[in-house]
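Database export, one record per block. Field names are fixed; values are copied verbatim from the stored entry.
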Amino acid sequence: MRSECKNKVIVKGKIIGGGRPLICLPVIAAQKEELLSQTEELIQLNPDIIEWRVDGFKRANDAGESLQVLKELLKKTDDIPLIFTCRIDSEGGLQRLSR
């Protein structure tokens, strides 16, 4: 039997760490338009969570641009929790980013 996490978190009505596994679909795109388009397609699949891998975004080093895109993604995902992740290049990240 799968053990449950003792610390559950509820985000937009989804119980993370609960008894039911959740489906998380990643969005990885170099350009803003492609990112938003992919997100719309993923929403149609009704995932529990969407993850934006910002290390795949060509303009990830531009904090202002990344923040603007993040705001647009949050509007699109509406009631679906959005995870924002950035992998460093040595851990499988898609590009080397400045600190």
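Remark 1: Residues 21 and 67 are 29 Å apart (CA to CA).
Remark 2: Helices lie at 32-44, 63-77.
End of record.
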